[in-house]
Design a protein that fits this description.
four-stranded antiparallel sheet, single chain, mainly beta
Length: 233
């Protein structure tokens, strides 16, 4: 199991299955806690998001995003993006973004903006634009409260891209000298506080760091082993 979302009363769980078999999305009956059926995607089914009546799955072992019709329970479109797609974000115009880490040591990570209105048409080009990041990056990202600036990281450095940008940043917003590599990222949608995690190589408890979106350090505190993501409620 990898990532989970709910839509219209059902649960949807992505599964890698194996490194040699296609991934899948398990559909879960949330009342009886059983898997009712599954939908085969591309290899390495990773992040999943429900948006405007469709489910989107990033297939991390490939360069594709699978679009699923949850009513007919099948993949209706496969979109080619960048290598190793990961987390999805929704911007202020309700467009969908996916961050792609890039091929191994190829320094070709990208942010891809997708138009959900094109998801019903297999022949339509769903890609609005691709922002080259000129580096291998994490497949995790976060968006600010105004939903017009995307933050991502590589190693101990955090970068930002405006959703109106057509080119990647030339420098980091900040670099944290206390960590060798961040492991997770999140932005509180009410306060715009940026949260970053340090797993400390899973050798013990991790650390969470708080920053302003300008990169000013605010606080840090110890958490459990392997902190990797955030949910704000």
């Amino acid at each position: 199991p990898r990532y989970f979302t709910t839509y219209n009363g059902a649960g949807y769980l992505t599964e890698w299955v194996s490194f040699t078999d296609p991934g899948r999305v398990a559909i879960i009956d949330l009342q009886n806690h059983v898997v009712t059926e599954s939908i085969t995607t591309d290899f390495g089914a990773e992040n999943i998001i429900a948006h405007q009546g469709k489910l989107y799955v990033s297939n991390n072992f490939t360069n594709t995003v699978s679009v699923i019709d949850p009513v007919n329970k099948k993949v209706i479109k496969t979109i080619e993006v960048g290598d190793s797609p990961g987390e999805f974000l929704i911007d202020s115009q309700n467009m969908l973004w996916v961050i792609c880490a890039g091929a191994y040591q190829a320094e070709d990570g990208v942010l891809v903006q997708l138009d959900p209105a094109k998801s019903d048409d297999e022949s339509a080009n769903s890609i609005l634009k691709t922002v080259e990041l000129n580096a291998n990056v994490s497949s995790k990202a976060a968006i600010n409260k105004a939903k017009d600036k995307i933050f991502y990281y590589k190693g101990s450095s955090v970068y930002a891209v405006n959703t109106s940008d057509t080119e990647g940043p030339t420098s980091a917003v900040f670099t944290e000298s206390k960590v060798s590599s961040f492991y997770g990222i999140g932005i509180d949608p009410e306060t715009d506080i940026l949260y970053m995690t340090d797993s400390k190589s899973f050798a013990g408890n991790g650390t969470v760091y708080q920053y302003s979106l300008a990169g000013v350090a605010m606080d840090d505190f110890e958490v459990g082993v392997g902190p990797n993501s955030f949910v704000f409620r």
